[in-house]
Design a protein that fits this description.
The complex is a heterodimer of chains A (357) and B (516). Helices cover 44% and strands 15% of the residues of chain A. In chain A, strands 1, 2, 3, 4, 5, 6, 7, 8, 9, 10 and 11 form an eleven-stranded mixed sheet that branches. In chain A, helix 3 links the parallel strand 1 and strand 2. Chain B has one domain: MetI-like (MetI-like fold, Orthogonal Bundle), CATH 1.10.3720. In chain B, 77% of the residues lie in helices and 0% in strands. The interface between A and B is large, with 65 and 64 residues.
């Protein structure tokens, strides 16, 4: 074996790298994981300062700026685990009593309603709830509605004019819309289906979904729908208002070809979905977790970050977004209890049976 | 010779450990035949299945054709600049498929926004094939170089043409190299997620992820059962197609390597030189230039747009350190765990050893998220102390990448002919001394390749990493995905570049070793 020495060299180098890595990993594990491990092992947590572990389904950068601002304001350390709503909710349920989460932040009401129904959330302190718009908080008081996203129609004016857009969400099942629009079976879409089942019944909802399946193009994600409309691949699409503003933020609103239209008139296409925050019953830091929710609802706390760093609607009373959003009062959504979106299984089952997911 | 019991026991234990995720799939979702039938008869399932099968046939096929063509071009012809071309052909190995796909999509949006030509099966075959063919190209180059050309010369002298000689004499000898490469690519197709989401092509795995995202774990597990069946079919097909490959030929003499390795005279390309150069450029353009253009395009957009003043560099550096250290750790552990398995299957070929090896492959074909959920489920119930630790994450990587290490070690151990072991044993050395002093030094190149492959794939892994990384512990892949989720490429570009650079290090060593 002529090349043996070089191979040996390679293996030696690799082994050295692995050893170094082990050392590094041990170090980094020591610095990052230790606070969590300590608090996990001492439920009373009397002597050690609390580190609040936040599971968040919100976009990571935004959730991180919330966590950082909370730490800056209160001195309470935070640790963020970012993922998708459903992934984190499932994880909390799988983890059971061993869950490391103290607080859960979601994008949609459905997943946090599922946690509430599973009985793992502590009630939110009433003064915290009182800081936000009552209409969007769940009737059961188990979580806080702290931000909201509105369903919208994003359209490309070079392909369709605003007055030609459908007036009602249910119209889209009509074959005349075939090939004109895109949609994504996102959490908000499932929420819409849940709402339809509750209002027009499962049979009519199924027929409508079959129409959507046949007429529309399923692009999987809201961002993909937005980009396809913006690029002129398709005339219009169903999204959350939020995604248009994220793109506008990146390229400049004046450079956006597409525009947004809000159906209003308490139409099913005008639903407004609040983002939720809840405290886990299994958390050993109940006081700090409640303090986080209180801060999140406060006009001088988290609401300031929502208003400036995110195109979501801040739900703190008297708080207005710094972004150029359609005013919340103009949206005229259907009136629903945000606590009624638990167990999205029925809606999902329909979507699976119809062949959308 | 009878297999030493201890080796067999350890190897079978490792294989059993590798089957934990499959056990989870069957336990949680697959046992109910009625539910399985219900899932199969849903309107969408058949479509996912057809899409998956098409992709699993077409991408390996395209990669094999491309990989063999390019290997012949750089080893057997007088293509100008062959050594440089060989390295360029190998480099896409360092670009994760979902990074490449992202670059293609963003380029399509930049050049012709209204076009949807890239989306769907043709685009997926083009992009994935051009990013994965090195898994065929590299072993075929190595095999072509080590072939004894006497046989070919003999065939030529007996009146066979160039093409006939290649098909009848050369190609059959490339079977081990083709088998390994095609298998890796086919199984990769069963588990690919990120690239297919971006390319709007739905397969069983994207459907499984979607079901999980909707919290429909039972259905996802039923679909995983179907995916596991497909994996078994691929393994069976590979076995059928490449029967007998991987065993030492019964008549083999004691020799190092595979006979007389000589530099054969390169075939002159003549008039084909220009088309060959154009074709080579096209491959490099598709597999390398476009992805890198996408990444650097994103970087420049950010540089001249909002700038990097408020960019979180510390976070990126931490992610680089985490990825490198976890990758090295996983490579080391996987290598150690794989050695008994590869020793067992190369030194004691039997039905049991064959099954042991194939068992390790089954996990590889499962989408990373299924393996990850199995571990989350088991750890959170039975080993809460292990839950959300680096140890559990490394365990997940070991389960996922064991077959990569076994495959590379197998070829390394085959290069170290078993007859040497026997000779050493007959001279009175014990099995451990024989392993340490005879087998290991001879098989080292293969073992090193295995470790590098694992390191490379840890960096590229996305789905299992998303679930298993401890809170606050970023990897480059998860950092990149959370930024690409919003289709915000300029924010993601530094992560993409770091991932490509980090992956290029093992890719370079692998390529250099095989191209040497």
């Amino acid at each position: 074996m002529v090349h043996l020495p070089r191979s040996l060299h390679l293996i030696g180098g690799l082994a050295a790298a692995a050893l170094l890595a082990t050392a590094l990993t041990a170090c980094s594990a020591g610095t990052t994981a230790e606070p969590g491990a300590e608090t996990g092992q001492s439920p009373s947590g009397a002597a050690t300062p609390a580190t609040l572990t936040i599971y968040s389904g919100q976009h990571e950068a935004f959730a991180q700026s919330l966590a950082d601002a909370f730490t800056a304001d209160t001195g309470i350390a935070t640790q963020l685990r970012a993922g998708s709503d459903v992934e984190l909710v499932n994880q909390i349920i799988e983890e059971g009593d061993n869950s490391k989460a103290d607080v859960i932040l979601t994008e949609e009401p459905g997943p946090i309603d599922t946690l509430a129904a599973a009985g793992v959330l502590s009630p939110v302190s009433p003064p915290t709830l009182a800081k936000t718009v009552t209409q969007y908080n769940p009737g059961n008081g188990l979580w806080l509605a702290w931000a909201a996203r509105a369903r919208s129609v994003v359209y490309n004016p070079t392909m369709i004019s605003a007055d030609k857009l459908p007036a009602h969400l249910l119209d889209l099942a009509d074959p005349k819309w075939k090939g004109t629009f895109a949609y994504a079976p996102s959490g908000a879409f499932v929420g819409t289906v849940t709402y339809l089942i509750d209002t027009i019944g499962a049979d009519k909802t199924r027929t409508w979904l079959e129409g959507i399946r046949d007429n529309g193009e399923n692009l999987g994600k809201n961002a993909a729908v937005r980009d396809a409309v913006e690029a002129g691949q398709i005339s219009f699409g169903l999204i959350n208002h939020y995604y248009w503003f994220l793109k506008a933020d990146e390229v400049g609103a004046e450079n956006m070809v597409s525009k947004q239209h809000y159906m209003g008139n308490q139409d099913a296409g005008a639903l407004v979905f609040p983002s939720g925050a809840g405290v886990l019953k299994t958390s050993s830091h109940q006081a700090e977790a409640q303090q986080f929710l209180g801060w999140l609802a406060d006009a001088d706390g988290g609401q300031k970050i929502v208003a400036s760093d995110s195109p979501q609607y801040p739900l703190g009373i008297g708080v207005t977004s710094t972004q150029d959003l359609e005013p919340l009062e103009n949206l005229d959504p259907p009136v629903v209890d945000s606590g009624d979106f638990a167990n999205p299984e029925n809606a999902q089952q329909l979507l699976v049976e119809v062949g959308i997911i | 010779m009878r297999a030493p019991r201890l080796l067999a026991l350890v190897a079978v234990l490792v294989a059993g450990f590798a089957l934990i995720p499959v056990g989870y799939v069957l336990l949680r979702g697959g046992v109910s035949l009625g539910a399985l039938v219900d899932t199969l008869t849903l309107p969408t399932t058949m479509g996912y299945l057809v899409n998956t099968v098409l992709l699993t046939i077409l991408v390996p096929l395209a990669s094999v054709v491309l990989g063999v063509l390019l290997a012949v071009l750089v080893v057997r012809t007088d293509l100008p600049g062959r050594r440089i071309w060989a390295m360029l052909f190998a480099l896409p190995l360092g670009i994760p498929a979902f990074v490449g796909s992202y670059a293609w999509v963003s380029l399509s949006y930049a050049v012709n926004p209204a076009s949807t030509a890239l989306f769907g099966l043709p685009g997926a075959v083009l992009i994935l094939g051009s990013s994965l063919y090195p898994y065929v190209f590299l072993p075929v180059v190595a095999a072509l170089r080590s072939l004894d050309t006497t046989q070919e010369e003999m065939a030529r002298s007996l009146g066979h043409g160039l093409v006939a000689t290649f098909l009848k004499v050369t190609l059959p000898q490339l079977r081990p190299a083709l088998s390994g490469g095609a298998l890796i690519i086919a199984l990769h197709m069963l588990a690919e997620y990120g690239a297919l989401v971006l390319l709007r092509y739905q397969t069983l795995t994207t459907a499984i992820m979607a079901r999980y995202e909707f919290g429909r774990a039972e259905e996802a597990l039923l679909l995983s059962t179907l995916l596991t069946v497909l994996c078994l079919a691929v393994l069976g097909f590979d076995r059928l197609l490449f029967r007998g490959v991987g065993r030492a030929a019964p008549d083999s003499r004691i020799r190092l390597g595979s006979g007389v390795t000589r530099t054969s005279t390169p075939a002159p390309l003549h008039a084909w030189q220009v088309p060959a150069l154009l074709g080579s450029s096209a491959v490099v353009f598709i597999g390398l230039v476009v992805p890198l253009t996408g990444i650097f395009g994103g970087l420049f957009q950010r540089l001249f747009g909002s700038g990097f003043a408020d960019y979180d560099w510390l976070r990126l550096l931490t992610a680089i350190g985490n990825t490198a250290s976890v990758g090295a750790l996983a490579a080391l552990v996987t290598t150690l765990v794989a050695i008994p398995v590869s020793m067992f299957i190369t030194r004691h070929p039997s039905t049991l050893s064959m099954l042991t090896e194939r068992a390790t492959w089954i996990t590889r074909s499962l989408p990373g998220i299924v393996v990850a959920l199995a571990l989350v489920f088991l750890a959170s119930r039975y080993l809460p102390g292990l839950y959300q630790t680096i140890a559990l994450m490394v365990l997940g990587y070991v389960l996922l990448f064991l077959p990569l290490a076994v495959g590379a070690q197998r070829s390394g151990l085959l290069a170290a002919a078993p007859q040497f072991d026997e000779l050493s044993r007959s001279l009175g050395q014990g099995p451990l001394t024989t392993f340490r002093r005879v087998t290991l030094p001879l098989a080292l190149p293969g073992i090193a390749s295995g470790a590098l492959l694992v390191f490379l794939d840890v960096g590229k892994e996305l789905t299992a990493t998303l679930l298993l990384h401890p809170t606050g512990f970023d990897m480059l892949s998860t950092g990149l995905w959370s930024r690409t989720e919003l289709l915000d490429y300029k924010d993601a570009a530094p992560y993409a570049l770091a991932l490509v650079v980090l992956s290029s290090i093992p890719a370079y060593f692998l390529a250099r070793r095989m191209l040497r």
